[in-house]
Predict the structure.
Amino acid sequence: MINKQINIDNSPEEFRFKNRLDNDVTNFITDLKEYQNLRDLYNHINKNLNIEGDRIFPLTIRINDGYIRSKDLKTYYCNSELYKYFFLGICLELETPISLILWVGSEDKLKEKNISTYKEICSKLNSKEIENIVISEKYLLGDKAKNYCHILTFKSQINFITEENKFFSNWIYFPFLKRSAEVFMSYFSPKFSPNQYDSDKQNYYINYFVSVIKYNYSTGQNSINLSVLNGLNTYYQNVKVSIDNIDLIRELQQNNENWGFALFKDITYKKNKLIREIILEKVNFDIIPEDILCHNIVQRAYYNYLLTGRLYISSENKLEEIYINLANGLSYLKLNITKDYSEFYDIYLKWFFVKINSNIYYKPFLLTNYNSQKDLSEIYNSYNLELNGKEIPLELLKWDKVVLPLMFIYLYNKHSKRTLIDRLRKWDNKWLINT
């Protein structure tokens, strides 16, 4: 059983956490410098080691899913009263939870514009609209504390886009949030996690992840016991987590015979000692068995990408084999799959993967608008050469503006998810998909 609250002072976890604080920024910046074609980006990092947004790509931030919270903070600069507003969200390109920081500023025109934007965001948070925020041009990735999950807007271009595709709007489907029992307690990098200030917990770091769960019982005030499904097979493990929502407890009790999805908030804070707490934020039982099968397959394929850095996942035959094995395993949990592989792929997997010559490739959100197999094949070929430090042929150089952002995202994932990757490697390559 895994405890809901962990005192990590004087423990290997505390050492790893503090080590991340000291080393993750240095390692990330060094990686950017070592890749020849990313050196131009490295050369334009400012003195605070912030990355200028117009030198990478626009960022799409998911809002209005129930786990976004906003707060404001008053500060002063040159005797002027300034406000900055925090919004927690999910960045689809960077594949991580982020903190969007909207600086109101002191210039009248800028102040008016940013207050208007703030009110519009708040309005959408309180509505039932499914919206994404797209941030482009003059934004900074990183703050003075060198936290690369903080996106600072100044004179940024901010647009709102209605996303009707559930696979890009519903938290249960995002590949990069998926976690199973084997890696449930994987640590996150504090330099790639939103951190905020609270009167009780002072400075605390936040992360989010999604698992397949089943309610067992209450273990006392504000804590419950859950079964969490494995990812490599259909066994499960019991965990103890925090919960502070009475309505959520009732929903769990009413669905105690059912498997569902759970969104967890993973926080670490200093309160006399360094404390880590995992809190159940939200559940979704309005699902079918294929949703759970999708969770396991997409998680396995995404972890393969994290471990190798390659966008190539497997042959189509191998992916179908994984589908069959996991579908058979789910039947023992009375979760019967009614769709064959082809139908399942067309409904669930085509949003995150692409077939090229009977091979399956991961398709990051950055490539959403690319549908030509010829173009994607050239992009994947160029990316693979870049990843391995090989020379890019002249005919593929036209894809630099796509491939270099993909390289940046891989390096970002490599450091933001480093502890997860380290834990995956301890499984003797069982998470790798052998083709």
In short: Residues 306 and 414 are 7 Å apart (CA to CA). Residues 12-34 form the longest helix (23 residues).
